Amino acid sequence: MSVMERRLIREASFGLTGKLWQISWFYVLLLCALASVGYMALYSAAGGSPEPFASKHILRFGFGLVLMLSIALIDIRVIARFSWLGYAGAVVLLILVLKMGHTGKGAQRWLNLGGMQWQPSELMKIMLVLALAHWFHKASWERMGNPLFLIPPALAVLLPVGLILKEPNLGTAVITGVVGASIFFGAGMRWWMVLLIIGIAVLALPLAYEHLHDYQRARITTFLHPESDPLGAGYNIIQSKIALGSGGMWGKGFLQGTQSHLNFLPEKQTDFIFTLLAEEWGLVGGLALMGLLATIIIGGLVMALICRNQFGRLVALGLSVNFFMYVLVNIAMVTGAIPVGGVPLPLVSHGGTAMLTVMIGMGILMSVHVHRDVDFGEERDQF
Amino acid sequence: MKRDTKRASIFTRRALLVGGAQLAALGGLAAKLYQVQVVEGARYTTLADSNRISARLIAPPRGRLLDRFGVPVAGNKLNWRALLIPEQTADVNATLDNFSKLVPLADHERARIEREMRRHRRFIPVTVREFLAWEDMASLEVNAPDLPGIVVDVGTTRQYPFGQALAHLVGYVAPPNEADMGGDTMLALPGMRVGRAGMERVHDKKLRGRAGAVQLEVNAVGRVIRELDRQEGIQGQDVQLTIDAGLQKAVIDRLGDESASAVVLDARNGEVLAMATNPSFDPSLFNSGVSQKQWLEWTRNRRAPLINKATSGLYAPGSTFKMVVAMSALEAKVITASDSVFCPGYLDFGDRRFSCWSKFGHGSMDLHGGLKNSCDVYFYEVARRTGIDRIAAMANRFGLAVPLDIELPGTRSGFMPTRAWRMAQGKAWNIGDTIVSGIGQGYMQLTPLSLATMVARIASGRAVQPHITRAIDGEALPGGKAEDWPSIGVSDHTLHAVREGMWAVVNEQGGSAPLARLDLPNMPNVQLAGKTGSAQVRNVTREQREHGYKSENGAWELRPNALFVCFAPYDTPRYALALVVEHGNAGAAAAAPIARDIMQDVLTRDPAARRDPPQRVADAAPIGSRIP
């Protein structure tokens, strides 16, 4: 059976039921498992009670699940068509947040929309992935060799990164940049350009440090010498490491974490939820959770690999890298491997908008998978 | 499609590369996690424990002070307190209003409670009221539902069962100040007290005890979650005193309203059986802090209730000093007991005339008659012949104007003039000064305790030192036996002559202190030997005397002090007593009857011979009941 034939069959039988069959229910199961770990951790964070975190968490996840499945059924070609519109909308929101956003913890990141606190930078990353994938969707290998072709998408990355830096939110800005770069890489950017960009980034580091805000520099200093200020900026890192270290190999047991239950651990229900888990369940529990997260990340890459259109491939790659970056930054932060920076652990940390944006991203990933064989029409170079 | 194949294969390669990089990064994180959780785990476990475990000290109960029979004179009693935990009530004011309906709270108490609440976190208990009565406790318990946030707990507080009677000797405790804190963190505990005066201060370190410790699990803001381990403190050591508390109480009662001081010693070993000072104060007031008003009342009182007159009051000894003059003369062989001096009622020396208390004179006086009649002229002449330095040396030997081994802080030695002292002042010693010293007047200043020591040494012939501590933690200190003390080094002949004279003062027809004669039907053969003293506190001129000046009509502060020193039984001396009645006018009239009553009580109780207190102290003849 030729590819054409299979595609035709797919198109013919592509009703609602067919699409539901194409959803990777195994992947949905993995996400449910992750959200359940979150429920358990938040139950413990509240001192052994579903209130105020865990019950809300699972409710939001339920809502997110419906949203995700709905998005999964939307034709990926429709999503592709509106990707630049979404990008533009996200940029507008980013500018709005700078103009009239709500300040929290020293940074202007939050926008009050419909009674909820939104962080537009989260949405921005997804829209950037879609926009870049759309740009590269029809780019041939030869086209990718032309640096001029890469300038507009590069600007499309730098604009939101600059806006997010201005909030200021260094962590998200870096993640946004890395997610954008991953799409350039997947789309076939030449190696010499990849190495050149890495080189420029390394050389620009000292310059960037000069322009950091005081609190960001404090975080870096603290990271390098956490013991220099044990009750001030270094407190979070030290307490998190104490919690992890005292958990040991097997942990202190469910609801037995002294560091988190006696409030020595800051922000235990949000940024430091991984610490709480690893304190109570030990290295074994921590590695198990990392295994689950790795499966979800690699699962996203597998969906990218088996997708038969360039747009879908790049979107799946970008979303997988985005999820990976959350996990990497969060866990590296709580283990003291990188400076602290307000990044939640997806589907585990307490927080409504983070959950929602993750589920939107997952919905798009599902849609890529469901529509992996759809015909995008004849592929040709633009311009 | 060829183009797509090329792009797809490049994408596949690069996606696998990204996946590999991601797995490698996660592997790196796993390694980091392993390092923190397993390799450095032990160190962080210790840190986690030091985070959550807070060791706190528990105040140990203070050791007791006991009298010679084991009766507590300073103990601990339970202190029921009502505490308020602000966070446990929705409305602090409503709770306090309800509390006020049961146990009224003054406005200043409300103000203090609110001040303390502002200063502490809301889970720290604030003391609402201490020293709750049993009925108050009961009504608080019954009404507990209306009193959210109110907790009743129990601590200990210092109690002085004999109160004012032993205030100067036992002393008192007070909350520690900054200077006390140095080095001893235990003192920072709530409820800890330090001894500020008397034996509480002398034995403070031993009475304090050792703090216990409790290990508490606390959270990041210091709230106690639960108790992990508890080691009770070690109570301070009990200190046993030589005092007979029952006797002390009786002595204080007998002193009545007089501004007076009495010291009773065991003459054979120097044990202080009673040391009473009137007026006194309530030592428990210092426990919680003395009010400004109370303090002014004490310090402005001319009878000085805060001063321990027995050890710090300085008085001219008057005629009670005559035994020392006699002994110095006999030992220096200046006179013999039978040498006589003629008393015409005065002694003229140079251009000064020294009057005898009897202006009619006593006629020919030997030592016996001189002491019995307290003839001033006899002792003027004996002192003149002996010289001040030999008198002073003998006074020192009998414990006068030398530091004594008494433990009490603030004890003064007194003062005895010598030629050397006068020369150091750049002045010549006058024989006239020696002459007035012969009757215990002039420059000399002595304490009641030193006079009691003098009598004890005369009575026992041993150089006993007065002391108050008998045993610490059940272990007796040396000095309890007569053999512990060396001989005074004065010939028996001399001692006997002086004792015999003191006996005559009380028991012979025409003696100067007939009111001091014992009247104990159960002990008809027991006799008391003593000596009166009436020491002027101002000069009375001859004109005043001739114009019929009577000091008892003058202002209280200007009247002579009345003194009496004595020992009993005469033939087997056991108890020594010194008594000073401030501005009592005449020793024979004001001091002797009180001394007699006290000594009768001492002999009846016989504390030195007993191992237990009298079974029915209340039934023992009340002191002074036999005064006709």
Describe this structure in words.
The complex is a heterodimer of chains A (383) and B (628). Chain A has one domain. Helix content of chain A is 70%, strand content 3%. Chain A has helices at 3-12, 16-22, 25-45, 54-73, 76-81, 83-100, 120-137, 141-144, 147-166, 170-187, 191-210, 214-224, 235-247, 258-261, 273-306, 310-334, 352-370; strands at residues 102-104, 107-113, 116-118. In chain A, strands 1-2-3 form a three-stranded antiparallel beta sheet. In chain A, strand 1 (102-104) and strand 2 (107-113) form a beta hairpin. The longest helix of chain A has 34 residues, at 273-306. In chain B, the strands form six sheets. In chain B, strands 2, 3, 4, 5, 10, 17 and 18 form a seven-stranded mixed beta sheet that branches. Chain B has a five-stranded antiparallel beta sheet with strand order 12-11-21-20-19. Chain B has a three-stranded antiparallel beta sheet with strand order 1-8-9. Chain B is an alpha+beta fold. Chain B starts with a helix and ends in a 23-residue tail after the last helix. Chain B has 22 helices and 21 strands. Chain B folds into three domains: 2-39; 56-240, Penicillin-binding protein 2a (Domain 2), CATH 3.90.1310; 245-295 and 314-619, Beta-lactamase, CATH 3.40.710. Residues 617-628 of chain B have low confidence and may be disordered. Chain B is 36% helix and 18% strand. Chains A and B meet through helix 10, helix 13, helix 14, helix 15 and helix 16 of A and helix 1 and helix 2 of B.
Which fold does the CATH topology of the largest domain in chain B refer to?
Beta-lactamase
Largest sheet of chain B: 7 strands, mixed
Within CATH, the superfamily of the largest domain in chain B carries the name DD-peptidase/beta-lactamase superfamily
The helicity of chain B comes to 25-40%
* Largest beta-sheet details of chain A: 3 strands, antiparallel
Q: What would you call the structural class of chain A?
A: mainly alpha
Q: What is the number of helical segments of chain B per DSSP (H or I, 4+ residues)?
A: 22
Q: What's the pLDDT, averaged over the residues of chain A?
A: 85
* Mean pLDDT score of chain B: 86
Query: What count of structural domains of chain B?
Result: 3
